Amino acid sequence: MSKLISKRSFLKGFAAAAAGAAAAPLVHAKPGAPLPQKWDREADVVILGYGGAGASAAITAKDAGADVVIFEKCPQGGGNTAVSSGGMMIPNNRERAIEYLRKTYDFANSEKYDELLTAFVDEAMKSKDFLLSLAPDQKVYIYGHAGFQSIPESDAIDKWRFRTPKGQKTRGGDMLFNNYRYAVETVRKIPVVYNARGLELITRNDEVLGAWIEIDGKKEAVKAKKAVVLATGGYEFDDKMLSNHTMGQKFHRLGHPGNTGDGVRMAQAAGADLWHMNALSCPLGLVVPGLKTALQINMLAPSHIYVDQDGKRFVNEKMDNHTCIYGVNLLDAVKHRYPRIPCFVIFDEEARKRGPIIGGATSGYALNREDYKWSKDNSAEIEKGVIVSAPTIEELAKKINVPAENLVETVKRWNEQITAGADKDFGRPLEKKGKVAFEGREAPIISRPIGEGPYYAAELYPAILNTQGGPKRNKLGQVLDPFGNPIPRLYSAGELGSMWGHIYQGATNNSEACVFGRIAGHTAAGEQNWQ
């Protein structure tokens, strides 16, 4: 016969068990994997990633007296910095810049960290002098302004970049990284190890002591006597991470293929808190057969519209370039589809002759590493099928498989409204007003009716420039755990765990890489050697 347990006995036993549990520590420090029997290499500060963030960290740590080594997974350095436009956001007024940037977080509902924001602005105010210190005889200039000019205090933001010397054709990103490289390798003689992919951080009682790195196919233990700085970029080339953290489908990429999320995984395994994982810098782009990456669209001709798979307009086509993903990632829960991925740009013969439909674009791997040259009149892309053409709107609709009656009505409505002087549906202005966010990418005339044929269309997909998510850091560049505590001897910089969240607006990733690279490098160099 089973014995019945009285309620009083049960509660008494439960209370005793609870008391015993309360006497035990609530958190157990993990000892981590055994330390390597021997270290294959060592340095005071070990930096993973050789883009703008890694270079800035290396320069500053070296100048602070630390022995530094950089490990880069690819055969050459540069990352997204080298294939970017090379711009850097530098505030011209501290208080107004802080106010402006705070407001951008508010409208996007992105998590902000006031201490981090203030530290960024304070250090960013020094970035012009830092840039000019990298290499001799360089000049910088203002080429643009804030990306979100409708937000108060946007005048506090300028965008700077290096001026390419006369007679040279070096693009902006390479100009920036070439100067970083000169400062790292020529001036400071900091060693850079290539084909070296970070695998896992080596920890003891949650303290980071080094990293396992695969160098030319061999796994090596690298000791970091002071600290490790993660500057490995984002995860846009990792499809699994994209599907888990973002909305949308059929993502293409604009940036460097080396960004596969290595630093995110390493930081996670070491106990890091993650933030901004669903945030992207993501224009719309076109896919050219044979290229590893896409090219972003940038229509300078005014006679064009975007339509969805139903042949209808759905957005003001002059949405900020870096935030286009938020205009297309609508999930239709009735018809079970993403009706705007892909979407289509529709334009006329005058727009075709106006120039490349990627007009003014200077960033991206396809342009800067695959050396793709878009034809001046778009004819080569028509030949390749990237752009399709038809003599009438009805026939164009059939070619891109959208309802012809809808597309005809959409073009008619656009033409009538713009002829009457206003886009009543989505508020696209007729002419550009205010400062330019980026020189060469903004035409003075923005909207005109779609005129005479032939007519043209091209499929547009989300084309990620970079992800913003990753380990959260504090104002000193230290990586934080989920309780807000710094993980000992672990730092990060750049777009790995970017502060920007959903509000990326151009030139701010390069700026953040430079700023928090300097901050992380300086702080890491000040650590005491571990025993």
Question: Would you kindly provide a written description of the structure presented here, covering whatever features stand out?
Answer:
The chain is of the alpha+beta class. Helices cover 30% and strands 20% of the residues. It has 16 helices and 22 strands. Strands 1, 2, 6, 7, 8, 9, 21 and 22 form an eight-stranded mixed sheet that branches. Strands 10, 13, 14, 15, 16, 17 and 18 form a seven-stranded mixed sheet that branches. The protein has a three-stranded antiparallel sheet with strand order 3-5-4. Strand 21 (478-480) and strand 22 (486-492) form a beta hairpin. Helix 2 (52-63) runs parallel beside helix 16 (508-525) and helix 4 crosses helix 5 (114-124). The longest helix has 18 residues, at 508-525. The radius of gyration is 26 Å and the shape is elongated. Mean pLDDT is 91; it is low at 1-30.
Task: Tag the structure with descriptive keywords.
alpha+beta; 16 helices; eight-stranded mixed sheet
In the predicted model, the low-confidence regions spanning at least 5 consecutive residues are 1-30
Gyration radius from CA atoms, angstroms: 26 Å
Q: Structural class, please?
A: alpha+beta
Number of helices: 16
What is the tally of beta strands? Answer: 22
Estimate percent helicity: 25-40%
Biggest β-sheet strands, sense, barrel: 8 strands, mixed
Quick one: overall form?
Answer: elongated
Distance between the termini: 62 Å
Taking all residues together, what is the mean pLDDT? 91
Beta-strand residue percentage:
15-25%
Write the layout of secondary structure elements.
Blueprint: H1 7-23, E1 41-48, H2 52-63, E2 68-71, H3 79-82, E3 88-91, H4 94-108, H5 114-124, H6 127-134, E4 140-145, E5 157-162, H7 172-187, E6 192-193, E7 196-204, E8 207-215, E9 218-230, H8 239-245, E10 252-253, H9 262-269, E11 274-275, E12 280-281, E13 284-286, E14 295-296, E15 304-307, H10 325-328, E16 343-347, H11 349-354, H12 365-368, H13 379-384, E17 388-390, H14 393-400, H15 404-420, E18 455-464, E19 466-467, E20 470-471, E21 478-480, E22 486-492, H16 508-525
Parallel strand pairs: 1-2, 1-9, 2-6, 9-22, 10-18
Antiparallel strand pairs: 3-5, 4-5, 7-8, 8-9, 11-20, 12-19, 13-14, 13-18, 15-16, 16-18, 17-18, 21-22
Helix pairs in contact: 2-7, 2-16, 4-5, 14-15
